[in-house]
């Protein structure tokens, strides 16, 4: 399998190269040159298999011979051994035809662990083989950062720098990033919002002098391997409800569009998904786009679901690439306009193709709190604000087929919002019970490329 850039001007890469490269050198995102498909029999055969076995079969066509079969199976086994549930990503019934896919049983209590634990193992294997060293820089609205730090802390061949928006993540999220003691971990509190952090990251990748001198690598969903690992749980959950003999729909709390894009990939691979529902908070650019085709940035407004406080949804570019029949030049024009003037308009054809696959909904702050309370009272489930947004929209969009809503984080990551909404204080697991007593280590930095690059260069030199 070869990987090509959504902007059509960067060299084709293998899986391993794409994983270690991050952003394409033309500013685009790497995607597989075509979507591999699985037969109905293959998908039916997933029933009763372990999460790890399904992961191997779903990801193998994308990974090719980067790892031998035995090595790849071992990588997958190690990645998920740290999960606190035997099913890894269990499905819980909310009501008669609505299910919650719990993705928060990994070490940092968010769905990011599902991919990040795997990427940590894959990076380690690839870097051991090559003897190379890399500088991972990540942008986070709270969860990617802690998951990346957990996956890479203490690794000799890696320095990991995480930029988060100062004052805009929950206290638990911040402490998960600022309290690890390993020397290769560097938390950077950036003045700005998540979009500032992600733009800085992309600018770093486009600064070839910096990129090459620090051996820059990325573990945001810029990295194709991140999205790939998330495709697996669409298969495991759908099959447990009767796929491929029965269709299912998914509702996905959405920000950077990585998680729901993984669902789109599962559908391209042959999983019978009826609807993919984008659930947004008040930062609703994707919901507005689906209504009118107008993809216009507005400022990011802080919310009680901070991980979704995003207006530049990076992976939307991967979808637009398909919506425009994989014409890199058209995609480059649209996303350059988004950067330069803050908006672009989808063609009628592209909007129609998007509407064929996706629905969307938006949940306000008050509605988010009310949804947390309502689910707690009706079902006993304490949901994090992101998952509550998904569940509310999932309920509204229910049709004839089962609806699976992705529960993307554990409520204990957002105790203040959850307690204010439903009166329950969600406890952290015992292994994290002293999180609030640990010392924090963080560098405050201006939201400015030169300033961030200077900090990174200085730390690496030191
Ligand atoms: C808890 C939580 N829910 C939902 C999202 C949105 O996911 P995505 O950015 O893949 O759309 C994120 C951030 O990525 C998150 O951390
Ligand atoms: N919500 C994310 C934002 C970054 O998304 P990613 O999937 O591109 O890593 C976060 O929690 O950091």
TrEMBL record:
UniProt pathway annotation: Amino-acid biosynthesis; L-threonine biosynthesis; L-threonine from L-aspartate: step 5/5
Residues that the record marks as modified (N6-(pyridoxal phosphate)lysine) are 112
InterPro entries attached to this UniProt entry: Ser/Thr_deHydtase_PyrdxlP-BS, Thr_synth_N, Thr_synth_N_sf, Thr_synthase-like, Threonine_Synthase, TrpB-like_PALP, TrpB-like_PALP_sf
Q: Does the keyword Cytoplasm apply?
A: no
Name the Enzyme Commission number(s) assigned to this protein: 4.2.3.1
Single GO molecular function: pyridoxal phosphate binding
Annotated catalysed reactions: O-phospho-L-homoserine + H2O = L-threonine + phosphate
Q: Which UniProt keywords apply?
A: Amino-acid biosynthesis, Lyase, Pyridoxal phosphate, Threonine biosynthesis
Q: Which domain of life is it from?
A: Bacteria
Q: Which cofactor does it need?
A: pyridoxal 5'-phosphate
Pfam families in the record, alphabetically?
A: PALP, THR4_C, Thr_synth_N
Annotated GO biological processes are: threonine biosynthetic process
Key word Oxidoreductase present in the record? no
Where in this chain does the record put each Threonine synthase N-terminal domain? 2-80
Where in the numbering of this chain does the Tryptophan synthase beta chain-like PALP domain appear? 99-331
Question: Which enzyme class?
Answer: lyase
Instruction: Cite the PANTHER family for this sequence.
Output: THREONINE SYNTHASE FAMILY MEMBER (PTHR42690), THREONINE SYNTHASE-LIKE 2 (PTHR42690:SF1)
**Which family is this protein grouped under?**
Belongs to the threonine synthase family.
Name of the protein in question: Threonine synthase
Organism per entry = Neptunicoccus cionae
């Amino acid at each position: 399998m070869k990987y090509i850039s959504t902007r059509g001007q960067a060299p084709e890469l293998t899986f391993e190269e794409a994983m270690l490269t991050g952003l394409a050198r033309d500013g685009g995102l790497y995607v597989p040159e075509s979507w591999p498909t699985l037969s109905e029999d293959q998908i039916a055969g997933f029933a009763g298999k372990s999460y790890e076995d399904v992961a191997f079969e779903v990801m193998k066509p994308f990974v090719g011979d980067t790892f031998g079969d035995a090595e790849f199976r071992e990588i997958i086994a190690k990645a998920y051994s740290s999960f606190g549930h035997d099913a890894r990503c269990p499905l819980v019934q909310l009501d008669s035809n609505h299910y919650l896919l719990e993705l928060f049983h990994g070490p940092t209590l968010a769905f990011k662990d599902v991919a990040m634990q795997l990427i940590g193992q894959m990076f380690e294997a690839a870097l051991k083989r090559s003897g190379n060293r890399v500088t991972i820089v990540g942008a986070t609205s709270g969860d990617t950062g802690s998951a990346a730090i957990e996956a890479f802390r203490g690794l000799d061949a890696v320095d990991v720098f995480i930029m988060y928006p100062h004052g805009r993540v929950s206290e638990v999220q911040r402490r998960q990033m600022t309290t690890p003691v390993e020397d290769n971990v560097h938390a950077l509190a950036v003045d700005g919002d998540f979009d500032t952090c992600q733009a800085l990251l992309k600018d770093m990748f486009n600064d070839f002098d910096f990129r090459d001198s620090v051996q820059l690598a990325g573990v945001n969903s810029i990295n194709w391997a991140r999205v790939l690992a998330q495709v697996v749980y669409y298969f495991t959950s759908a099959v447990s409800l009767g796929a491929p003999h029965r269709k299912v729909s998914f509702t996905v709390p959405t920000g950077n569009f990585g998680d729901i894009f993984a669902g789109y990939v599962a559908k391209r691979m042959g999983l019978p998904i009826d609807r993919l529902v984008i659930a947004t908070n008040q930062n609703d650019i994707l919901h507005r786009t689906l209504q009118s085709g107008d993809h216009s940035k507005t400022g990011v407004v802080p919310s009680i679901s901070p991980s979704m406080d995003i207006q530049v949804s990076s992976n939307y570019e991967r979808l637009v690439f398909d919506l425009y029949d994989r014409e890199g030049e058209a995609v480059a024009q649209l996303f350059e306009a988004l950067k330069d003037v803050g908006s672009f308009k989808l063609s009628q054809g592209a909007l129609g193709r998007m509407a064929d696959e996706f629905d969307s909904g938006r949940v306000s702050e008050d509605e988010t709190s009310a949804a947390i309370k309502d689910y707690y009272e009706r079902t006993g489930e304490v949901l994090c604000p992101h998952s509550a947004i998904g569940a509310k929209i999932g309920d509204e969009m229910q049709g004839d087929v089962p609806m699976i809503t992705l529960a993307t984080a554990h409520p204990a990551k957002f105790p203040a919002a959850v307690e204010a909404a439903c009166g329950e204080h969600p406890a952290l697991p015992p292994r994290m019970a002293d999180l609030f007593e640990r010392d924090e280590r963080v560098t405050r930095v201006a939201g400015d490329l030169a300033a961030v690059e200077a900090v990174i260069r200085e730390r690496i030199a030191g």
